[in-house]
From TrEMBL:
Gene3D superfamilies: 3.30.230.10, GHMP kinase, C-terminal domain (3.30.70.890)
HAMAP family: IspE
Highest classification ranks of the organism: Bacteria, Pseudomonadati, Pseudomonadota, Alphaproteobacteria, Hyphomicrobiales
Protein name (database record): 4-diphosphocytidyl-2-C-methyl-D-erythritol kinase
Keyword vocabulary terms for this entry: ATP-binding, Isoprene biosynthesis, Kinase, Nucleotide-binding, Transferase
Length: 291
């Protein structure tokens, strides 16, 4: 019996914290990051059938690109290389998230492609070939596979158990300037083999929203300064969100340039988003829940 079209959401990833703990000999950086997911994202559909193709539509389709450059196809090919008899088909990506923006749009699309192929081929959710394909495609793809709040370590391959933390009313702001991940890590200037002694932050379950934000405020995103060196407008975005009277915390996600603001209520987030859109009509401003 053939399956009809299958759909998966590809939510935006938000690094609520991001500490760089060192740099491996191969150049990749060791991270300690609390990763959560937004209610907003892209949508990926797979129509199972012969061949492997991708059509991309939506507001940011052009920037994401079609064909073999797209992480959806790269993820499918990585899984096919491990499982050559795999059923594939036609993917359609509805691309809404800004590209090269630090909110893992491409990684989340790749993870959604792997989930769709796993469903179409009745692979177990924890199939080791799926996990290996995720690791091969990108450092952020493993955490996007399950898309649940958790601490992430190593270069992205170490995933700690999911955490039940309060959902946070959030405004995401992207100044529409790309911050390429490799360039931002390069600007950090850490030598291969370097280690930074730092205690891994712990997040107790049962925290209130207010307590969680207080704990987050003690943390950092260590890529903010190098991202600002690559794209100075990131500083302006952090300052502008942080200046909203009801904003509890303004910080960059991932390697930027997207910045998030955390608020006590959806109403406060919506009001801040209106003010930000009025102040910077050209920027991408989205309200959402994170966690
Ligand atoms: C910064 C984060 O967004 C935090 O979640 C991720 O670590 C980035 O994940 P990603 O975009 O999937 O990264 P990849 O596509 O695997 O790598 C892009 C480039 O970023 C650098 N990179 C990435 C991840 C990492 N832990 N250390 C690195 O140094 C490498 O130069 C690499 O060539
Ligand atoms: N489906 C896709 N969506 C977005 N970008 C894609 C996609 N496929 C390939 N790319 C390419 O991947 C690069 C990274 O895009 P992406 O939006 O994932 O970056 P990011 O948000 O900075 O990711 P991260 O937070 O994981 O570092 C872009 O330069 C883009 O050309």
């Amino acid at each position: 019996m053939s399956l009809g079209p299958l759909t998966e959401r590809a939510p935006a990833k938000v690094n609520l914290t991001l500490h760089v703990l060192g740099r491996r000999a191969d150049g990749y950086h060791l991270l300690d990051s609390l990763v959560a997911f937004a209610a907003r994202g892209d949508t990926l559909t797979l129509e199972p059938g012969p061949g492997l193709s991708l059509r991309v539509t939506g507001p940011t389709a052009k920037a994401a690109g079609e064909g073999t450059d797209n992480l959806v196809i790269r993820a499918a090919q990585a899984l096919l290389a491990r499982l050559p008899g795999l059923d594939t088909g036609r993917f359609h990506l509805l691309k809404r998230l800004p590209v090269a923006a630090g909110i893992g749009g491409g990684s989340s699309d790749a993870a959604a492609a792997l989930r769709l192929l796993a469903r179409a081929n009745r692979l177990a959710p924890d199939d080791p070939h799926v996990a290996a394909a995720a690791r091969e495609v990108g450092a952020d793809v493993p955490v996007c596979l399950e898309a649940r709040t958790r601490l992430m370590g190593g270069a992205g391959e170490t995933l700690f158990p999911p955490l039940a933390l309060p959902r946070l009313p959030t405004v995401l702001v992207n100044p529409r300037v790309p911050a390429p991940t490799a360039a931002v890590f390069r600007a950090l200037g850490l030598q291969p083999g370097a280690t930074i002694a730092a205690a891994r932050q712990a997040f107790a379950e049962g925290l209130t929203r207010r307590d969680l934000i207080a704990v987050l405020r003690e943390a950092r995103n260590d890529l903010e300064a190098p991202a600002i060196a690559v794209a100075p407008v990131v500083r302006e975005a952090i300052d502008l969100i942080g200046a909203q009277p009801t904003c509890r915390l303004a910080r960059m996600s991932g390697s930027g340039a997207t910045v998030f603001g955390l608020f006590d209520s959806c109403r406060a987030a919506a009001a801040a988003a209106r003010a930000l859109r009025a102040a910077r009509p050209g920027w991408w401003v989205a309200t959402t829940m994170v966690g």
